[in-house]
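Quarterly update from the structural biology core.
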Amino acid sequence: MSFSPSDRAQSLLSPQSEAVVKATAAIVTENAEKITACFYPAMFAAHPELLRVFNQGNQATGEQSRALAASVVAYAVQLDSSLIAFDQFVKHAD
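Predicted structure, tokenized:
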């Protein structure tokens, strides 16, 4: 059986979770880098053992946060084509 990328992604979410992603996608897209910039310090504070798993140079430059933000936005965009185009987000992030 063959799945398209959108079929595969949608099948991973319950209908309720998909509705939450779609309902919050625009606000998350606007604030993705702020969210991920807070996420990593909180995660490392709660789980310091993960510090050895992530490249700390990428943490220091913000590269890891930007990569996660872009991934979250890309996922939301593929679920809901009415959102801003992914390339618009990437241009805004630069």
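The helical segments are 5-11, 15-46, 56-61, 63-79, 86-93.
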